[in-house]
Amino acid sequence: MTARILDGRAVSAAILDRVRREVAEFTGEHGRTPTLATVLVGDDPASHTYVRMKANRCAQVGMHSRRIELDAAIGTETLVGRIRELSADPDVDGILLQHPVPGHIDERAAFEAIDPAKDVDGVTRASFAMMAFDEGGFRSATPGGIMALLDAYDVPLPGRHAVVVGRSPILGRPVGMLLLARDATVTYCHSRTAGLADRVAEADVLVAAAGRPGLIRGEWIKPGAVVIDAGYAGNTGDVEYAAAAERASYITPVPGGVGPMTIATLLAQTIRAARDHQTRRVVSVP
């Protein structure tokens, strides 16, 4: 068996085409351009690359990207204050705080300064709760992108055993909740799980999100399993790709799988936030 590729580049391109049409329609109807504010703290080269990629995608779909760069030496209070200003700014529809921030900053406090109505990256507690209870809100961008990718290939989820390796609040935990909402039976694992190989071998659907390159060996994969590799370090994911591809039915490449879906989901949620924002503006007019 050789796995079929879950092509995030192709699926994300289709999503971005739809977003481009929605942005043009919104701009024509309301006379303003949807705006995503990106906040970057410090000089981490990878973070600068990610923010630049997001700005380029915004330009491609006709969306405005407002980039806020802050010195690495700022404190939590300064960052929280800047994000609250963006939350209150009527010209901003979505806010992205690039992760990670420098270690001396309380990242959770910074995330919670984002207005949930503008939390298009799905990082606040409010967004997680609404997602977990299936009450709307914005999905964490990478988990939302993973679900969209599975849907694009008609991967069945009800009744299947999904194993998530990773427990971060913006990836591992929320993707497990989204899978559970689709009637999968979900097991959470992590790098310290005893007998990790045995747990992985039980997975009909595996989401590798530990951020540990090569953690999951190819021979652990259940024949016919669907493998989603959300790890990324250079061009290496969490899964031993070549060996896993010989056993899986579907697999994401690294790069070109989950990564493009994250940005597409972010922008799809930004145009949705802009529409919601515009509706609230109209309702608030006396």
UniProtKB/TrEMBL annotation:
Sequence ranges assigned to domain Tetrahydrofolate dehydrogenase/cyclohydrolase catalytic in this UniProt record: 6-121
Record keywords: Amino-acid biosynthesis, Histidine biosynthesis, Hydrolase, Methionine biosynthesis, Multifunctional enzyme, NADP, One-carbon metabolism, Oxidoreductase, Purine biosynthesis
Spans traversing the lipid bilayer: none
InterPro entries found in the cross-reference section: Aminoacid_DH-like_N_sf (IPR046346), NAD(P)-bd_dom_sf (IPR036291), THF_DH/CycHdrlase (IPR000672), THF_DH/CycHdrlase_cat_dom (IPR020630), THF_DH/CycHdrlase_CS (IPR020867), THF_DH/CycHdrlase_NAD-bd_dom (IPR020631)
Function: Catalyzes the oxidation of 5,10-methylenetetrahydrofolate to 5,10-methenyltetrahydrofolate and then the hydrolysis of 5,10-methenyltetrahydrofolate to 10-formyltetrahydrofolate.
Similarity field: Belongs to the tetrahydrofolate dehydrogenase/cyclohydrolase family.
Subunit structure: Homodimer.
PANTHER family assigned to the protein according to its UniProt record, in alphabetical order: C-1-TETRAHYDROFOLATE SYNTHASE, CYTOPLASMIC (PTHR48099:SF5), C-1-TETRAHYDROFOLATE SYNTHASE, CYTOPLASMIC-RELATED (PTHR48099)
Protein name as it appears in the record: Bifunctional protein FolD
Organism of provenance: Thermocatellispora tengchongensis
